Amino acid sequence: MKQQQLEHYSCYINGEWIDALNGDKTEVENPATNCAFATVPNMSTKEAELALVCAQNAEKDWRDLPAIQRADYLFKMIESLVKKRDLFAKLLVLEQGKTLAEAYGEFDDTINYLRYSAEAARRIEGQIFPSDNSDEQLWIQKVPYGVVVALCAFNYPLALIGRKLGPALVTGNTVVLKPHEATPITAMEFCKTLDEIGLPAGVVNVITGGGAKVGAYLSASPITKLVTVTGSIRAGQEITRSSADNITALSLELGGKASFIVLEDADIDAAVEAAVISRYANCGQVCICNELVLVHEKIADEFTRKVIERVKQIRVGDPMSDVNMGPSVTQGGLQRVYDIVEKTLAEGATLALGGKRPDGEKFKHGNWIEPTVLTDVSADMTAAKEEIFGPVMPIVTISSYEQALEITNRRNDGLSAYIYTQNYKTFMHAIKNVEVGTLFINKQIVGYIQGYHSGHKRSGVGGEDGIYGIEGYLQKRTVYLNCN
């Protein structure tokens, strides 16, 4: 049988479509089938240098535009994108494996990120402080960094573009963006919109290639003034090392392992629903997902029984159809999930549900695992310690809030946590003492545009979203103005 020709997507550098100088290409697979459906250039450090230089050359003219004019380009971007909502949703399903409903949600989030940034153009503020002397003023101005390198993860390949590109551009920076090598296609399609609206050449450059080669080169370059990353803790550590010589500014949104604490006075049905949604959304591939349930012993049996009943209702299958969960994005990520399950079972946990590839011919190929629940888990087992980043829910029984707090805070990461309780003294204590960047109280997983998404400890520095996210793309310049 003749192999179907794969569609090729070129990179976008300085307003032009460019391939690797050596002609090298990388195939992009559909995670539901493991079949390649497109190719992108496998760029080298030469093309990465070109992208950086082009962004640097475009930076002054872009910075000198009034913010409201920069915002006009974002509004044009939005106008062009909304006409392609169906196209982008289907591309997201094809390359990332999320369900069609989740893909439409990601597209809508992308638009919201861009719109919020565009609307912030007239709210970029400095400050004036009283001087110690007469006829003198003290100003704090906010100015762009210059060339921003944006490195994106595979779990939200389109939304992360909007999340990073919007605030970077409206504040006057130029951008070199590198999508994850597993999910570059929506980024390439996004570039067509930049071309359509006539964005000045070099303001946004998108390059594909491996993180170890291209990503490291971009973050190590002296041209780069800020690196914004969404990825794993390991990736953040490597980028920190590669950018250290230039003391490059960093915004690292990294991984974590969110505790989902359910205390004896919780609304059990509400907690069950939230625990399931917050674990299996996007096949468990969300950095703030429920990674570890800590349920009080007084309600553990009822909670666990209801969780298993609810998880059995999750429909797994072709993400283009009416299902609740698709495949994992990468084969390597899926194998890691299977390894964690296997190790935890060997340590004495019980497989209450799932843990294997779904039955049926349609699941013969692709990165599949059933929604999984592990019980009889202790806090020192593998699934309770390692970030799973997949659809596996380990359940640990606790005897008190204090025990749950200790398990949560002993970690050297701290991205998010959940707590279900009706006791206001308990949740007020949690607000003060749980060492994470985001705390959900009687609330399932969510992320509002006007909020702030950041991690504590090894889960990162800096953050995204809201007014503080906009601020992250600006540095301060202090001006002492003598009027004599």
UniProtKB/TrEMBL annotation:
Residues 17-479 form the Aldehyde dehydrogenase domain. Pfam families: Aldedh. It comes from the Bacteria. InterPro entries: Ald_DH/histidinol_DH, Ald_DH_C, Ald_DH_CS_CYS, Ald_DH_N, Aldehyde_DH_dom, Aldehyde_DH_Superfamily. One of its GO terms (biological process) is gamma-aminobutyric acid catabolic process. Keywords: Oxidoreductase. PROSITE patterns: ALDEHYDE_DEHYDR_CYS. GO terms for molecular function: succinate-semialdehyde dehydrogenase (NAD+) activity. Belongs to the aldehyde dehydrogenase family. This is Aldehyde dehydrogenase family protein.
